[in-house]
Amino acid sequence: MFLTSRYHVVATMGVVLSLTSCADTEFVLRPPAPERFPPAVTPPPRITESVITVPMRVDLSDFLNATNNPNLIPKKFDHSGSVSKHPKGGEYKYYAERDDFSIEQPAHSVSNTEPRLSIGDWWKEIELSGVSLFVSAPLRYKIGARSHAQGAESSAQCGDGSGWPRRATLNGSIAIGMTSDYGVSASLRSVTVHPIEPCRLRISDVDLQQAVNTALSDQAKEGFNSAVSRLNALSLKPRAEDVWTALRNPIQLEPDIWLLLNLDKVRRAGFSKDGHVVKDILQIIAHPVIVHGAEPPASSPALPPLETEAVSPDFRGVADVQDAYTEKQPVSEKFHVLADIQVDYGTLSQTLSKQLKGRRIETKGNVITITGAGIFGLGNNQVLLRVEFTGDARGYVYLIGKPEINVMTEAVYLSGLRYDLGTTHLLQTTAPAWFNDAPLRETIAPEIVLGVTPMIDRIRDSLRTGLNRTLTPTVSMQGTVTSMQGITVSADVDALYIRTMSNGTLNVLASSEP
To answer: What phi and psi values does residue 207 have, to the nearest 5 degrees?
Structure first.
């Protein structure tokens, strides 16, 4: 009797298990994983041109010493003991003495004819004086005149007695530029006298002020030419090579993360004045990128020739440059860095699973609850989403989508989300009708938002630190990162890449001595 009862219990349990097994087969969805797509050919990124500003100090002490050498340019112009005859009649004599020359910004009419450049906020309150260098020395002078007209003699004085001295300036304008080999090229453009307190002397309808101005200028020209020759012996090439060599090497931002500047060419922005020193402003054009992995090789070749301005066909020296050839085009001083931030799918899966876990989906009295989710690279710039669930149906489904980025919110979402072919087949052939009506895809689509702001912020902070450092004993960098923004996203098989573009500035300081 006991054995018979035990037999009926076992038989009944077998029937129940058999029925349960049949039910599980109808309500369990486990589609096969889809095959990966062939890898898509990703077009190379278009890297924005960036400008690296490099001010180089050019010491003009030797040039100024030459202009102030009385053996080259006299300190005193004494024609008080000898009389000069003017071709139009009359005689005159003069005396002048000068102080030392200094480098000046143009303060008289010549400033209206010289092109000007401004290099923006970084070099505040300093303007570049086109292709000219101006030197000026205070001048004191007096003039005496004598005229014989209609048998009578008349004389006049200017600057004697209580009126001594009359004030003026002795000015030199030097055309200055750079050769393609980074040498200084200079030639004398003009020597002029600018009367601050002019003499109003006239004899025989002759303006003696202009005659004396011309005489003083002519006496100074030869000495100026000799002083200017000292400028042509200067060269910035050694320091330019130091900067180029320091910048062509990869700059480590983090372990296995490197900044490559990808230097391209060098051009001039002009000179700026700082006492007896001028700063020649060079601009290195670069195409910076951030790369991942082992240290890459140096990305740029040797220092290229300096880009120089076009000149007229009969150009004989920098002073021959005409206005038509000195027009400047606006130059951007922005420094941009392109970076692909790598986000592994494991990290994305953890984030996504936390977002979706516990979500309930109910339809026609049946309920399923999401228990987990994962995201994987599928190839062809698409990702595979696996959503696991339990409840009145259990198992998982696969969905396919293309990653997109909202540049305003820096959030990644999946567009065109759809079931893959294997999941679609099972939904059409084996899934119960109520499950097909369950709004699973519609429910999870708005929830798939992957914030990447922390990752962008981390790279931005690393870049900011990397741009402010000493590269060699003679070369250091000072950079800013004003913004960094995600611009595109792409899905590789092994990781998701957020392409970012940063904006800022980069200035490189070069010294001649460590």
So the answer is: -85, 100
Q: Which residues pair with 202 in a beta bridge?
A: 207
Check pLDDT > 50 for residue 312. no
Q: What is the number of structural domains in the chain?
A: 1
- Rounded Cα distance between 448 and 506, Å, is 38
User: Measured between alpha carbons, how far is 229 from 66 in angstroms, rounded to an integer?
Assistant: 10
pLDDT in tens, 61-72: 899 999 999 999
Query: Each residue of 129-180: pLDDT tens digit?
Result: 346 788 999 999 998 887 765 554 667 788 776 656 899 999 999 988 889 9
In a domain, residue 184? The reply is: yes
Hey, what are 100's tokens?
């030392």
pLDDT value for 158: 85
E strands within 106-183? 117-118, 127-128, 132-149, 152-158, 166-178
| Contact between 502 and 481 (Cβ < 8 Å) | yes
Q: Return the amino acid letter for 241.
A: E
Amino acid identity of residue 475, one-letter, is V
Q: Please, what sign has the CA dihedral across residues 56, 226, 196, 210?
A: negative
Residue 136 lies inside a defined structural domain of this protein: yes
Whether 403 is in a domain gets the answer no
Higher pLDDT, 394 or 206: 394
Alpha-carbon distance 248 to 299, whole Å? Answer: 6
Domain that holds residue 153: 60-231
pLDDT tens digits, residue range 6-16? 334 333 334 33
Position 163 scores a pLDDT of 59
Beta strands in 325-445 (DSSP E): 335-344, 360-363, 366-379, 382-391, 394-406, 411-419
- Nearest alpha-carbon partner for 435 in 393, 385, 373, 389: 393
Nearest by Cα to 133 from 292, 278, 269: 278
Which structure tokens are listed for 224? 């100026």
Residue 477: what are its φ and ψ, rounded to 5°?
-120, 145
Residue 251 lies in a domain: no
Sign, CA torsion 167/271/177/115: negative
Residue 235 contacts by C-beta under 8 Å, 6 or more apart in sequence?
A: 181, 182, 183, 184
